[in-house]
Every structure is written in structure tokens, then in C-alpha cells.
Amino acid sequence: MFKKKNFCDMNPFFYMISSEKGILLRHIRNLTGDDKFAKTIQKEKLPVIVKSHSSHLIKKGKGIDPVLQQNKAVNIAIAGSTMNGMVIHPGETFSFWQTVGKITAKKGYMDGRVISQNKIKAGKGGGLCNLANTINLLILHSPLTITEFHTHSDALAPDPGGVRVPLSAGTSVSYNYIDYRFKNNTDQNFQLCIWCEEEELKAELRSEKEIPYHYEIVEEDHHFHKEGDKYYRISKIYRITTEKTTGKTIDKKMIWDNHSMVMFDEDLIPQNLIR
Question: For tag attachment on the chain, is the N or C end more exposed, with fewer CB atoms within 10 Å?
Fold first, then answer.
């Protein structure tokens, strides 16, 4: 069956036009909307660690460009510094792009790995999706409300050591119309702490008071499946909320019906996971 192409997929020039249109429309919505964006940065950390996360900045392996990986680490360090210590007060919204701003060489950003039209290539500021994904993991383990979330493939590389970690990738951002946002609808302040240390991305979400709930990310029916000449990672990913005092489950919500194109060497897909 003939599949009709989107306007932006016809050629790179049309893609650029669509991107510029998206950027302009987002600027208009930011100016005319009701969102109050978080802007406060403070050095003093809030007392309670709600969730912490760390990940390797430099990936190695077959088909992975080491230069783009090093550049990615630089890009993440620059963008992370714009939000390290950011306090999100009640009623405020955190916007990835309102915080980071436009990606330019003047700010020190370099060519890293980006995904465009389902292809991996070099692009200015490449790798910032890793930073957005880390923030997403923090927020999913909190009572904060995600208000904007976009996905790309989370099958960018084989699982390290064959160990599958749900949502280790998959969050997509692109200046500025593909944003990641969350809102503080609680009655207390929260704080993002982001820094890089010895080729590790470190991240913490902090609060003023203890959270009465525990949050867990679980994945079900994880496998790979061939469709046409491409393989896809398929799974359903849920967030389970339990009360800390009783251990009672109060909510199980599917957060991603995952259907991700494999973008690494297909020979590295575990054979026992192919269906």
C-alpha cells in the first residue's frame, strides 16, 4: 500500500520550513499562554531527595561515533548548568527549552548525535534528549504533573550488559516546539539538581517535605518484532503508585505503549526476545 508522506518528509527544505513554523508558533503560545515558567535558581539544596539518577555520558560500541559521544557530554554539561538548582514553586511550570534557550555554537554547543526523520546523524546540541530523559525519570518518581512529553525510539543502542532498564531512553526534545514540561500542582517547592562528574550525568529531584508515596516504573511484555525489513522494540510501560505507610497500591497507569524502531545493529538483538 502506498503511504502518503507528510509535507516535512518530502525533502530537507520542507522539513526546515516545518521546523521554523513550529518554532514560531511555540514562541507565540509562550507569550500568550497562562503558564508561569520556573526561573529561580538557588545554590542551597532543599532537604529531601525525592529521586536521584546517574548515567554514563559516553557510550561505546559497534557503530557508535566516539567524537559525537564526547561532544554530547559537552552539550549536556552546558544545558545541565542552566537548570542546576532550579526551584519549581507551586503553580509553576518547568520548560526544558525556556530554561536551556536556543542552541548555538557561541554558547559552546557542539555537533552530537541527533535523531531526525528516524535517522541518526550529527547535529548542533546533539545528546540533549539524554538530559530530558533523565529529568523525565525523576519526575515520574514524584507527584509532579508531566504536561508535555514526546518520544523517539528507545532502541538506540543495545541494553548495557543485556540488562533492560525501562525508560533508559526515549524522551525527545527539539528547539523549541518539541518540549518537555512538567507542572508543580503540589503545595511545596521542588528543586532540580543537575551536574556532570567524571563522565557521569548526575541528577536529583528534591523537595521541602517527604513524599507519602512510592513510585515504580515497570515494563510488561518486552520483546522485539520484525515488521517488513525493520525490527521494533515492543512493550508496555507502567507507573505504579503505592502508599509508603501501608504498601497499598493506589494506581497503575500505562505511560508508554512502546513501539520503537531498532536503530542499532540488528545482529545484537537478543535472539530469545524476538517474537
Answer: N
Which three cell numbers mark 99?
A: 530554561
- CA dist., res. 132 & res. 249, Å (int): 28
Cα separation, 275 vs 271, whole angstroms = 9
Q: What is the pTM of this model?
A: 0.91
The rounded distance, in Å, linking the Cα atoms of 255 and 145 is 12
All 3 cell numbers of residue 40? 529561580
pLDDT value of position 14? 62
Cis-peptide, bond into residue 176, ω within 30° of zero: yes
Euclidean distance between CA atoms 29 and 21, whole angstroms: 12
Q: What are phi and psi of 28, to 5 degrees?
A: -65, -45
178 to each of 92, 111, 150, how far by Cα in Å?
19, 19, 7
Is-contact 133 170, C-beta < 8 A?
Answer: yes
φ, ψ of residue 29 in degrees (nearest 5): -65, -35
Sequence-distant (6+) residues with CB within 8 A of 101 are 82, 107
Angstrom CA distances, 106 to 16, 65, 110, 126, 136, stand at 21, 24, 10, 15, 28
Tens digit of pLDDT for each residue in 197-254?
999 999 999 999 999 999 999 999 999 999 999 999 999 999 999 999 999 999 999 9
30: left (phi over 0), alpha (psi -120 to 50) or beta: alpha
